[in-house]
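User: structure tokens for this one?
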Amino acid sequence: LSLYTGTQKKNKIMKEKLLQKYNMKGVAFISTGLIGGGAYMTWGQIDDLAHSPNVVLEAHSVHHYALNKVNQQILQNEVVESKQVLEKHTGYTVNWMAYPYGSFNENVVFAVKKAGYIGAITILPGVWQYKSRFYHIPRYRAGRRLGDDLIKLLQ
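Assistant:
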């Protein structure tokens, strides 16, 4: 399983091909407010990705703000709207959030729970082992490694 964040076109194409090549599953965390701008994917590309057998789309907020630094109203909008918009486009329930920049605190965790997510991904290193930590799930970061460099890292 590969977890990745972002809506940049170049990353989408490369990662989807790698997932297909190695018959892996991936979870793409999407910031819905960035879609269609500059180097980011369009909604058409997002919709195609959402129906790929190798990829599931999950939430990464609307504007990719550091959620522990915004006021309560913005926080609520970021986590609720991202989920609703992705569910509308994908046709399935969005259950997971990846905290932008890995920034979260207990207020952010509460907002994510209240919005109906079943868990959230951090950038904290480590191994997830406890159901009580569903909103603090660590992940191994590949960073900017792509292609063969990424495969070497995974081996």
